[in-house]
Amino acid sequence: MNLNRVAIHLKDVMGSLKVFSTLTHDARIFVAGHRGLVGSAIVRRLKAYGFTNLVLRTRSELDLLDQAAVRDFFREQRIDFVFVCAAKVGGILHNSLHQADFIYENLMISANVIQAAALYDVKKLLYLGSSCIYPKFSPQPIPEEALLSGPLEPTNEGYAIAKIAGLKLCEKFYKQYGKCFISVMPTNMYGPNDNFHPDHSHVIPGMMRRFHQAARGGASSVTVWGTGSPRREFLYADDFAEAALTVMENYNEAEFLNVGTGEDVPIRELAFTMAQVVGFKGEIVFDSSKPDGTPRKVLDVSKVKSLGWEPRISLEVGLRLSYEWALQTDAFTCSAGARDTQSSHV
Ligand code: GDP
């Protein structure tokens, strides 16, 4: 497949025409975490639709862990709409080994932003959770009602508890104070501005880097973590961004919504597709000493689809677009730390 043609196709597929009435074009919109995978996709979509009044802050300009700074920011900036994409995020290994950092930072970011948004009259706020909030052994596909119905997957318990607290904060501010603060639970996402660190990243960028290096180095085999049998659902970040805008525009309920494709693949199959995308022709070896994590995690997305949203980028096209982005931006060749944001809160 010709990558340039895929890129043109992406523009056509995503489009730039949509009628907004909740999100007015002069509204002041704060995208927290705008340099990360998801925040940058939301900014891309907002710009494509002609929104110009975006308020964006890097971590050095506004530290979301600092409650006083966050309050000052909201008091001064008079924000109308907020997308809470800022979070400390990481793949299975990094997440499992740094659970104190993951729970603490995500609790603080959520509490500081949500409370300040309530204090300074933000009209609407969209909070991003994660599909890992659900119990390890949830019914599949996972309906929103499965929340808090059983024990969590231990490898990301700290992160999940913080994200559950964030969505509950939104729900409680909605119910007690009438704030239109709502939440979405995205499935595993990937795309431009992903974290390609060899150890800290999620499966798609981590695997892509390893396969790329194996292909370029002429290696005869490449290693994939775990047994290859866990199943995961993947959503391209721009598809998610479109869902986030649809929810911001059309959904006003306290109950959170899942966002995903509703389809999953075994990690083994992802590895074979990745080999094709990257051009790796050697052997794929599965390292069962690395954790598998939860066996299956596919979301029931019937509620969000009833708002008229559908994902448009297939896994193969999304992988090719991500690979192209990574090649163009040197995501694989820069030192492990340079692209290691570990967090969309940068
Ligand atoms: P999870 O969805 O929270 O488990 O997060 P990950 O995206 O980190 O991992 C998903 C699955 O992919 C797990 O079963 C991992 O063992 C497996 N996996 C295979 N290769 C890799 C890799 O290179 N990096 C990561 N992070 N996971 C990998």
Keywords:
346 residues, three-stranded mixed beta sheet, six-stranded parallel beta sheet, binds guanosine-5'-diphosphate, alpha/beta
Describe what this molecule looks like in 3D.
The chain is of the alpha/beta class. The chain contains 11 helices and 13 strands. The chain has a 6-stranded parallel beta sheet with strand order 2-1-3-4-5-10, with helices on both faces. Helix 3 (67-77) packs parallel to helix 5 and helix 9 (267-278) crosses helix 11 (315-328). The structure holds guanosine-5'-diphosphate.
SSE pattern, N- to C-terminal: HEHEHEHHEHEEHEEEHEEHEEHH
Number of strands: 13
The ligands found in this model are: guanosine-5'-diphosphate
Averaging pLDDT over every residue, what do you get?
92
The largest sheet is: 6 strands, parallel
Name of the CATH first level: Alpha Beta
Global outline: globular
What do we call the CATH topology? Rossmann fold
How many structural domains does the protein architecture include? 1
Q: Assign the structural class, choosing from mainly alpha, mainly beta, alpha/beta, alpha+beta, or little secondary structure.
A: alpha/beta
How many DSSP helices? 11
Outline the fold blueprint.
Elements: H1 3-14, E1 29-32, H2 37-48, E2 54-55, H3 67-77, E3 81-84, H4 92-97, H5 99-119, E4 124-128, H6 157-177, E5 181-186, E6 188-190, H7 203-217, E7 221-225, E8 231-232, E9 234-236, H8 237-250, E10 257-259, E11 265-266, H9 267-278, E12 283-287, E13 296-297, H10 302-305, H11 315-328
Parallel strand pairs: 1-2, 1-3, 3-4, 4-5, 5-10, 6-9, 7-12, 8-13
Antiparallel strand pairs: 8-11
Helix pairs in contact: 2-8, 3-5, 5-6, 7-9, 9-11
The protein binds guanosine-5'-diphosphate.
Residues 91-92, 132, 156, 188, 201-203, 206-207, 210, 224-226, 230, 232, 267, 290-293 line the site of guanosine-5'-diphosphate.
